[in-house]
Amino acid sequence: MANANAPMIELSGVGFAYEDAERFTLANLDLRIDAGTVTGIVGASGAGKTTLAKTIAGFIPLNEGGTYRGAASVAGRVLAEGTLSEAAAAVGLVTQNPFNQISGARFTVREELAFGLENRSVPRDEMERRVDEVAARLRLEPLLDRSPYALSGGQMQLVAIASMVIMQPPVLVMDEPTSQLDPAGTRLVYDVLSTLSDGGTTVVIIEHKTELLHEHCDSIAVLAGGLIVQHGTPGAVLADDRLTSWGVGETRVTTAARLARERGLLPVERALPIGVDDAVEAFSTQTGAAS
Amino acid sequence: MSESGHAESAGAAAGAAAGAAADASSAGDIAISVRGLVHTYPSGVTALQGVDLDVAPGERVAIVGQNGAGKTTLVRHLNGMVRPTEGEVRIGDWSTTEKSIAELAHRVGYVFQNPDEQIFARTVATDVGFGPKNLGFDEERAQRAVSDALEAVGLAHEADVHPHHLSLSERKRIAIAAVLAMQTPIVVLDEPTTGQDDAGVQLIAAIVGSLIAQGRTVVAITHDMDFCIENFDRVVVMAQGEVRADGPAEEVFADVAALEAAAVEPPQLLRVARALGWSGTPRDARAFVDQLAQQRGSGSSA
Ligand SMILES: Nc1ncnc2c1ncn2[C@@H]1O[C@H](COP(=O)(O)OP(=O)(O)OP(=O)(O)O)[C@@H](O)[C@H]1O
Ligand SMILES: Nc1ncnc2c1ncn2[C@@H]1O[C@H](COP(=O)(O)OP(=O)(O)OP(=O)(O)O)[C@@H](O)[C@H]1O
Ligand SMILES: [Mg+2]
Ligand SMILES: [Mg+2]
User: Fold this and answer.
1) Which residues of A108-128 are buried (b: 16+ CB within 10 A; e: fewer)?
2) What pTM value is reported for the model?
3) Of B2, B201, B292, which is closest to A260 when you measure between CB atoms?
4) Complex ipTM > 0.90
């Protein structure tokens, strides 16, 4: 077992260039993530977020050619030195395109969800119990007897998430898991994620909707130029003046608050709000103060 | 950063639209008319329960609604990928049941929700060039259509790259470019901003703006309500295979019952305005702050 002070995920000087690529997508990157935390990863389009997710999960370098350097470990083990199936047991990866996550080996959503457990010889009654449980948590019951391919984009995304959550990996990495979900589905995913992290799972989530990260993460790391350029509390990272220069958009309320500040409608010392509740507070205080 | 980025991308998008100008003359009169549309998949799932929808030439319409509402199924009828089980879909004077996908491609371009289902070629330029070639553009026009479209989505420098060597949001923008290059009077975008960063969303907003400036019709499905209210005048709300609301953004986002039925949350700034008890509908940050100033003005005079 890893010692208590060691981070659950540790990347030191990790660099990676895809085969025949002209540049390193990840360049000498350092990242430490503690056990049981929820960490958000943000960065511009093409910044290398998916590449980083695959690296944490050991797919890089185990399953991807190219030039790899540095050291990456999960729970004190260097995944690159083991096998793909060992890596898959240590880290569950929800891929960005849910379509790619569906095994293609099973006829129904129910069988698809059970597929990974079957491969690990989990007893049938436990398997059924876990399928029912994850289906209930992500409201997939009405879809259980459908083909995993005869689904809408958002439904398929939920199935892909469920097929990984059901495996109960100690580390769960989710690559933009809510990109095609409606607000209700998005809430379900974040609820599941909170429950998992309360139970000790380490969660890493790539997400563009920073309002959600603000609400649910212990920390946020920013990926830019192949490096982690900032890693800290959500409040600190999302209020960082350099955020847009890293290609990360601010929320609409943050933009509005910035404009309000420029027009003298919000005191400079008031931290810029990120989510709706915070904004309501910021702007109502102002109306109150003015009267 | 966002200001200048926006101006630049708007310029590029305008360039792409300019390439279409020659062809867009006929765009002015092709309306979409959907009547009593029912669609049942072979599996037995009825995804559309009788949908009526009219879109006038040059309109920009957003379709929103919960997962599985039938949005994708509806728009796939417009380019003939999916055929009505009952009812009729007309694109101008054509009924889609009487036309092939290849014929409909002259009038309707459809960007897939999942770009990996759409992209197939070995280089970005070949993929984007496929449509223009099939539509019979001459060499010069085709080349120009491709380069303008890649410019508009910010990927001109990736023309010779294998699409699978790009990130997912980049592939989505290739899928958008492939449809822009077809220069169709009607452009249908299935969740165009999914996975895009801020700059990408702005590029897509600029593309929508320039298509409309060209008199072309834009129908876009989206879960991004901020993008929706900033770029679309008319919003169609779907739930369980039906249209539950259809009207100006201001009205639709005030229709609490329809939004709830469709699991739609109003845009962020509108939620703040509501919580503050404001009556107006600020559509973007600037409008919001104008209203804040007004509010404070009346607050201090009261
Ligand atoms: N399979 C691949 N082969 C070669 N190069 C690749 C491959 N996948 C990614 N790249 C390179 O790495 C860059 C980053 O890709 P990645 O998918 O990690 O970005 P991302 O931050 O996840 O982007 P997005 O926000 O679009 O998901 C790409 O722009 C491309 O240059
Ligand atoms: N190929 C298919 N075969 C059978 N049923 C399907 C197929 N594609 C979609 N469906 C079903 O039809 C209904 C409508 O799906 P559709 O893809 O149109 O929804 P959507 O509104 O686009 O949802 P999302 O926001 O998740 O993309 C859903 O119940 C879905 O499960
Ligand atoms: Mg990615
Ligand atoms: Mg869809």
Assistant:
1) ebbbbbbbbbeeeebeeeebe
2) 0.93
3) B292
4) yes
